[in-house]
Amino acid sequence: MSAGKTMHDAIKNFILERKAKKEEALLTTKFAKDKDGGLNKILIKSIKSTEKYPDEGLKAIESRKKSKDEMSLNFHTQKFHDLIALAEDNQIDIAEYKETYLLQKQKVEDAHQFATWLDENCKYAEGASVATHVSKLTHSSNKASCFFDQTLNQKAGCVTTSAVSRPFVDGAYDDAKYSPIVSLLLVENEGRYFYEDIIEGDCNGLLGFEKNTEQLHAWKEELKKSIVKPTKSTNSLSKQIYFPLEGNPFNVEDWHLLSVLVSSSMAHSIFNKTVSKDFNDKNWALRDKYRAKSLFSHETLINYPRISTLMVTQSSPQNTSILNGKRNGRLVLISSQPPTWQRSVKPPIYQASWFRSGIPNYAVKEDIQYLRAFLLRNDALELSTRNPKKLKWLENWGEQIIDEVMYHANIIQTLPSGWSEAEGIKLKKAHQCFLDPYRDDEDFQRERESTDWEMEICADFASWLNNHLKGKDKAFTPKEEHSKLWRNLMSAALRELKDTQKFSFDKELKV
User: pLDDT > 90: what percent of the chain?
Assistant: First the structure.
């Protein structure tokens, strides 16, 4: 049985990965100057600039795709060798490029010798910080100290970094040249970071890279400076936020300091749970698996309405901190509007159709406007909405509107059951079946099971949505194909609703 991976192995792999990225950059992004496209692109241009270039051979090289298991560096290196062979077979002079590439590659090789790389980067450790709170998240020129919050205390009603079970740790720096040493401190091995070893005075991860004892000692002393910061300083760009605790605040204690610095750890936790690629991929996979096929899902689909994004040093987010670079400079702001479900809800007994005034205009206005604009644009260009791509857009907007409709329907459905028995009720029986599903009345439940009330709900929904889409100017005229689509989408939502209600009934019976 082989021994587990050590911190030394993790650091070794980290330096080798950086070396591979530098070598790949020579071929793909930066060969002689910034954004020149790399050597492979230069070679392709050079071959095409000849009087008669080998068209078929070049097309084959350009069109080749990287296989799933192929390493990126190997793919681009093979492309380079293929271009060299093609040029030489056709007597195209590229000797200068070959020579420059070998020199550049050797420089990368030399710079990433383990001892050399550590010598070059450990000296910058003093300018690097491992932190939970990063000052530059308030302003890119903020020179205030960063903080590593290890406080475990929590306060009820307050969202703090200590409330996150295992907070993400960020790496911050004043200059991009400090970025590599921050990345070294954040090297992870089996759930433990290298900076944690440094805090405890354990530098065994570096053993074996040194040429002599003095060199190892020097690395240790330099790395300690990234953790031990004897002086702390603030800056006018920190933008501290205070909130008044008294009606007429006068003294210092009358104010509560909401934020000294932005918690990058908290920001990253929120980002991962709201808009990250992993979060979105999982939610869309569930939508495609269940909602698109009108199936009930026992897994939870999560949606955060009305979130906003604050961009932090958007032009170069990686120059602020490691985690800010991973977020592409985004801070996610979750809506703090009062929840609408706390308003007083009254049963809709004085109207024939619940759709007439059951859904607040603000809840669906934006989606309906987008949908109407899309339909008007298609009409103006005489485009068919039956095109699969166009149809997908219509379905997406229709489903979003239905989500809002079902949300407000659920508010009515959670009223004390039996409200639809009110004397003189004007609400149609189909809408009663829809909105008062748990009414304790055998005749009502029998009728609910035996009649096709869902069809009437679908028709009323389509009529309600079409009226909104027409607009006051009557610029859009819905067709039967639109009505049919709205009915089908609502029908799918009602089937999912019935499955959910059945699941709730079954769960109650088991209890």
Answer: 43
Q: What is the largest CA-CA distance in the chain?
A: 96
Would residue 403 count as lying in a domain? yes
Task: Reply yes or no on whether the pLDDT at 387 is more than 80.
Answer: no
Instruction: Match 């200059």 to its residue by tokens.
Output: 175
* 287 located within any domain: no
Residue 317, token pair as written in the block: 């987010």
Contact 326, 269 (CB under 8 A): no
pTM: 0.60
Domain boundary among 70, 85, 112: 112
- How far apart CA 474 and CA 485 sit, in angstroms, is 20
Domain boundary among 71, 90, 112: 112
* Concatenated DSSP letters of 248-265: S--SGGGEEEEESS-BHH
C-alpha to C-alpha distance for 242 and 12, rounded to whole angstroms: 46
Whole-number Cα distances in Å, 243 to 131, 181, 322, 504: 25, 38, 30, 44
Secondary structure element (H or E) that encloses residue 111, with its range:
helix 95-111
- What pLDDT is attached to residue 139? 81
pLDDT of residue 99: 94
Residues 225-246: pLDDT tens digits? 888 777 778 888 887 778 888 8
Closest by alpha carbon to 496, among 438, 410, 415? Answer: 410
Is it the case that residue 500 has pLDDT exceeding 90? no
Does residue 385 lie in a domain region? yes
**CA neighbor of 208 nearest in space, from 7, 16, 18:** 7
3-state secondary structure 284-344: HHHHHHCHHHCCCCCCCCCCCCCCEEEECCCCCHHHCEHHHHHCCCEEEECCCCCCHHHCC
Domain assignment present for 241: no
Per the structure, the complete domain to which residue 48 belongs is given by: 7-112
